[in-house]
Write a structure and sequence with these properties.
The complex is a heterodimer of chains A (127) and B (227). With 127 residues, chain A is of the alpha+beta class. Chain A is built from two helices and eight strands, in the order αβαβββββββ. In chain B, strand 5, helix 3 and strand 6 form a beta-alpha-beta unit. Classes of the chains: A alpha+beta (127), B alpha/beta (227). Chains A and B meet through helix 1 and strand 8 of A and strand 3 and helix 8 of B.
Chain lengths: 127, 227
């Protein structure tokens, strides 16, 4: 549900960027963003919202490309390392956990909370 | 690339990349930090209260205000989609309240909190509760600038509330399991809910409560450093 809010903020910041960059930065072809798996952001809904929002703007036709970032966990006590989501036989899905499966200590988390514009791909056009 | 007058410019039709490396929600993050700074300047502790619709967020805040208002000067910012029902309930405790209606949005954001803070006499406050919109997903994405996060769930939401919404619990400081007096009736095992919460976030302090019976409310305050 909040994907539409996030896409609105993204589109507005891209439009602002276009204005700032001398008014003629070229045609926006692609926007590369990173979304950490810890974010409650549905990539499909984000892309859908983006496509709706850019219609009839100068960003029309541009594509939103999303790289999903898997968080990593490590245990400060026993040095256990893993990805964040682990299969639990009692569930039929992956349950995220910050509890070390080896020694029970609290795991440190690295990455996975990204929500960033990495870069944009632009084609030079003459005004 | 063509060089002209010492400046390298791209040619017509050339495709090039511009590295931006910026946070999409940077503006909200910066406003949240600003809200936090403003509250700290006034010596105010702030608690973001999140949880599902009908879990008992307002009841818990009201019960906490009732036992803490002799020791703290408290205000409550009430976030909801519409109506002033919650702010009116809290106002019965004779403390300042601000109702923030989001209209159709499913969460509060830092800008709305900034506006709400402008309505309060911060010099006359020690503690602010911010009740977020009832929702276990969206509010986790929009930090408000509070010191601590309190998540309220209840046994009437069934046994799978935690595992279905794990992200809400990752950054929670305290989790209240409300309506504990109804656990048997609902056939929900509170110890299983507790186990789910600490599996996701071993640092979270989990407190079973019953707002109706006023059980466990003081313990929630203690877990948040409010003695």
């Amino acid at each position: 549900m909040h994907e539409f809010s996030i896409a609105t903020i993204l589109v507005n910041s891209l439009l602002d960027y276009q204005k700032k960059d001398g008014g003629n930065p070229g045609k926006l072809l692609e926007v590369y963003i990173r979304v950490g798996r810890l974010r409650s952001v549905s990539v499909e809904q984000l892309v859908y919202s983006y496509d709706l929002l850019v219609k009839r703007t100068s960003l029309s036709g541009s594509k939103l490309l999303v790289e999903e970032i898997e968080p990593k966990v490590s245990c400060p006590k026993c040095n256990f390392k893993d990805t964040f989501e682990r299969r639990d036989e009692s569930f039929h899905f992956a349950l995220p956990s910050l509890s070390c499966p080896r020694c029970g200590a609290s795991l440190s988390l690295e990455g996975g909370d990204e929500l960033q514009i990495a870069k944009i791909r632009v084609q030079k056009v003459t005004a | 690339m063509v060089s002209s007058g010492g400046v390298i410019t791209s040619t017509e039709g050339e495709v090039f990349d511009i590295e931006l490396e910026t946070d999409i929600l940077k503006a909200n993050k910066e406003l949240a930090l600003e809200n936090h700074r403003v509250m700290k300047e006034h010596g105010i502790t702030s608690i973001d209260v999140m949880g599902s619709v009908g879990s008992g967020k307002t009841s818990l805040i009201k019960a906490m205000v009732s036992i803490l208002k002799n020791r703290y000067r408290i205000a409550v910012i009430e976030g909801d989609v519409t109506t002033t029902i919650d702010a009116d309930l809290i106002a019965a405790e004779n403390i300042p309240t601000v109702q923030v209606n989001t209209g159709k949005e499913c969460h509060l954001d830092a800008n709305l909190i900034k506006k709400a803070l402008a309505r309060l006499k911060l010099n006359e406050l020690d503690l602010i509760f911010i009740e977020n919109v009832g929702n276990l997903i969206c509010p986790a994405e929009f930090p408000l600038g509070s010191d601590k996060r309190l998540v309220v769930i209840s046994v009437t939401e069934g046994p799978y509330m935690v595992v279905k919404h794990p992200m809400m619990f990752i950054e929670a400081d305290t989790v209240a399991i409300n309506k504990i007096d109804l656990a048997e009736l609902m056939d929900v095992d509170p110890s299983k809910l507790r186990n789910d919460i600490v599996t996701i976030n071993p640092k979270a302090c989990v407190v079973p409560i019953s707002c109706r019976r006023k059980d466990g409310v003081a313990e929630i305050g203690r877990s948040l450093g409010l003695d």
